[in-house]
Design goal:
This protein is mainly beta. The protein has three helices and 15 strands. Helix content is 10%, strand content 47%.
């Protein structure tokens, strides 16, 4: 059987998520979770997402980069939490009842590491046709071009599709592992 991922129970900011195991090897590659961050709309492929949780208590870790909020205890596991706004060079908004942490599974040296990303608001899972995805602009973007997997044309607006493997490079992941002792 393929790689499994867990989506948690409950309703997160209007998005209904039901507990289920997902065979991520058979997921439609065109499905993206969309979310708001500093008044912009972003998306990430659902194949990396393990679960979405409410923003809760985060333990600060001294001497970490400014985009690392700290760590959380997720069912007995230490999970680093990244302030995605800070990582993308934007100003973080205040935490609200709609602020969520998206838990993703990243792989480094054949080992999986769970990492949480703080987002302002989770929207929905949408299908985005390959025909609707434009390449990352070479200029004028508010974030590093290598962080952008593409720009999805949806109705009148664009959704920035993030390349999570570049948002946290292998070098930065290894630094994270050293900081939190993973």
């Amino acid at each position: 059987m393929g790689k499994q991922s867990q989506i948690s129970d409950g309703q997160v900011s209007g998005l209904n998520l039901y507990s289920r195991d997902i065979d991520v090897d058979h997921i439609d590659a065109n499905k993206y979770l969309t979310f708001n961050l500093s008044d912009s709309l972003y998306g990430v492929g659902i194949n990396l997402i393990k679960e979405i949780i409410e923003f809760g208590r985060i333990t600060l870790v001294p001497m970490t980069p400014n985009y690392i909020r700290g760590v959380i205890n997720l069912r007995g596991n230490v999970v680093p939490v990244i302030d995605l706004s800070a990582r993308l060079g934007k100003e973080a908004k205040d935490i609200t009842k709609r602020t969520c942490i998206i838990i993703v599974e990243m792989t480094m040296d054949n080992e999986s590491t769970d990492i949480g990303f703080v987002v302002d608001l989770v929207n929905e899972v949408i299908d985005i046709s390959v025909d609707c995805i434009e390449p990352a602009p070479s200029f004028g973007a508010d974030i590093r071009v290598d962080f952008i997997a593409g720009m999805a044309r949806l109705e009148r607006d664009f959704t920035i599709l993030l390349d999570l493997e570049n948002v946290l490079s292998i070098v930065e992941l290894s630094e994270l592992n050293e900081v939190v002792g993973l």
